[in-house]
Each structure stands twice: as structure tokens, then as C-alpha cells.
Amino acid sequence: MRDLKHIIEFEDLLQEAHNDLVRQARESGRRALGYTCYFMPEVLLDLPGCFSVRLRAPRSGSPDMATYYMSNRTCLYGRCLLERALEGGFNFLDAQMATETCTVTCRFQEHLQLMDIIQNPDFFCEFTDVPFKKNVNAIDHFEKQLQCHVLDKLKEHFGIDTSDEALLKAIEEHNEVCRLIQEIGSYRKKDVPTITGTEFSIIQLVTQVCPKYLIIDKLRDIAEDLKTREPDVKPGYRIKVVLTGSEEDDPDFIRLIEECGALVVADRYCYGSIPGREEIVVKEGETPLRAIARHYIETSMCPRFMEQHTMRERKQFLADVAREYKADGIIVCQMKFCEYWSYERTIDTLILPRDYGFPVCSIEKEYVNNAVGQLRTRFQAFVESVEIKKLQGGAAK
């Protein structure tokens, strides 16, 4: 297929956290607000006068300094973020809007809070507590947390307008990005998709790490370009898969999967769009902040929700996604030492084939992708096994 508009530019933007568009926004006087988790609503960090940056550590090597502080038995994602901070790679941040979610990212953010790492005199780190259940009390608690630890702090430190009018404007702008990402992602549902998983992951990541007002026109261009993009005469894949799992912010990992013959048609992982790019609906009589708190609690599919019924809902959701995107199998990928996803991956590997009929490839990997040869062998073997099952007439329930 011909190259999508802006895709090379977007891939270049992902090579550094402090990329050209982040620099441009800061030079215009906007505040750069970092975050690491879906539970920190990016819409609140995109209020007028600031912009959100979901933290990554692209092109990481061995995190020796961070390992000294965090030990070598913690998730490499958190260690690589700390290593990048110690190297000075996050000095552009004006604040880190932290969440009490997974242990290792909490430890990373605690180091930012307690140590003089970020060389920015205005920098502060603020923690927001996130509930472990999905109910009205949880939404009440989360709404109060977001008011106290996000909106009040942004107003106090930087004079950000946090009125209902400003929140409604931020929601409107956020929803436009969501609509465009949904439109772009819908081409993955075709019998022969006209966008690859690698391309989509690049586009989705750019919406999380760049100021949205600087990329919105480019997203419109891509959505328009896809209307006339034709698939290759002979598709370069053998099966379609859903990729699910923990932190995944490296398009090269998805490129590796696709080089093995498995087209990634849905991204049900941290940093992905399913969930992540659903529009926020403000119900009648609901304040904008209440709508945001409710939206992020209700839409999250994070495995930190451990009640039995929510766990079963996640399996059903994943199976439904696989059917909607016409996937032949599911790859479950867990970051090594990730507590929540270690449980989730184990359960997915058992339940999805048994109850829903989807073949599963279960992978444990590092944030720094050094085991390319081993992973390539695993993915090639999975592709072949799914092809054999299809020839034998196996089908999802």
C-alpha cells in the first residue's frame, strides 16, 4: 500500500519524548503535564494553557542507574522511565500528574516527587488515588480526587482555567480526536484492512505524546487519505490478531508481529485505543468533571479491577473485540514483573481458548526488546498453528 500522509513525520516524533511539537507548544507558553496511566484523564491535562504527554522512554538501553534505586525485580517499563528522567530526558515537564495505580509506576513517580531529578523550577508531582471498584461510590471518590489533586493544583500552580466552560471545551476537543482515531481504526475491520497495525499504533501514540491542537489537522488528512487507499493485491499477512496486554509503546514490536505474518487489527493494551478513544458523554444534569470521572471508571478494562464479574466482563469484551475486528487469534503480552497483567495473562491464556474458541499466544517480554529472535520464533509458530486450525475448520464460539 502507498504510504499514509504524515506517517513518516509521526514516526519521527516518537523517537524522543521531548519532540519538536512538544518544544513548539512549550515555546508558546503552554505547560507540559506528564502522566503514565489511562486513569489520569488526559482531557483534564489538555485544558487551555497546558497539554498532556504520556511518558515513554524510546530507544532505551540498560537502566543501570534506575535499577540501583528500584531493584532488578521490578518492571523494566518503570525503570526505563526513571532512567530517562535521571538522564535529563524529562526536564521539559512542568508537572507529573501521577496516579496510585500499578506499583512500579508509583515508585517511579515517587522518585520524581522526593528526589531533585527534574531540572525545572516549576516542576511538581501530584498523586491521585484511583478506586479498585466500578460503582457509584468509586465515581464519587474519583471525582473528588480529580478536583483536589488535578484541577485545584493546576489552578494553584499555573493559573489554569478549570471552570465548567473550560472543561466542556476540553471535552469537545478530546472527542474530536477520539472520533478521528475511531474513523482511522475502523479500516482495520475490513475483510482486507487498508491500514496496518504498525501504522495505527504510530498514529495512536502520537495523539498521546504530542499536543493535540498541533496534530488535529494531520489526523484529518490521514482520515481523508484512508477513504481512497487501496489494499495490496496480495495481502502481506496470513492471519489477523488482537494484541492485548500491559504497556506497549513501541511500534517496532507490532512491526515484528506483522513481519511474522500476523496483522494486528485491534490494540487492547495500555497505550491502545480499545478502550482509550471513546467519546466522553456529559449526561443531562451532570457536571463535566463528574462525566469525566464516570467515563474513565466505566470504560477502563484494567486488570487492577479484580472482582469476579469485572474479570468475566473483560474476557467477554476481548472476545467481542476479536469478533468485531475479524481476528483469527489473540496475542496476550505481559511486561515482565507486571503484577496485574501476570494474573490477567494467565487467566486469558486459559479462558479465551476454552470459553470463546480463540487461539492464544502468551508472551512475557521486557520493555527493551532484546529477545527479537525468540519472539519471532514464537510468533511464526503461532501463525502456523492458527493456519492449521483454520484448515481443520476450527472457529471461535
What features would you describe in this structure?
The protein is 49% helix and 13% strand. The chain has 397 residues and is α/β, with parallel strands linked by helices. It has a four-stranded parallel beta sheet, with helices on both faces. Strands 6-5-7-8 form a four-stranded parallel beta sheet, with helices on both faces. It is globular and about 65 Å long. The model has no long low-confidence stretch (mean pLDDT 95).
Largest sheet: 4 strands, parallel
- Estimate percent helicity: 40-55%
- Calculate the terminal CA-CA distance, rounded to whole Å: 33 Å
Alpha plus pi helix count: 15
**How much strand?**
5-15%
Element string (H = helix, E = strand): HHEHEHHEHEHHHHEHEHHEHEH
**Mean pLDDT over all positions:** 95
Radius of gyration: 20 Å
Shape: globular
Q: Could you give the count of β-strands?
A: 8
Across the major sheet, the strand order is 2-1-3-4
SS content category: alpha/beta
Contiguous uncertain segments of 5+ residues: none
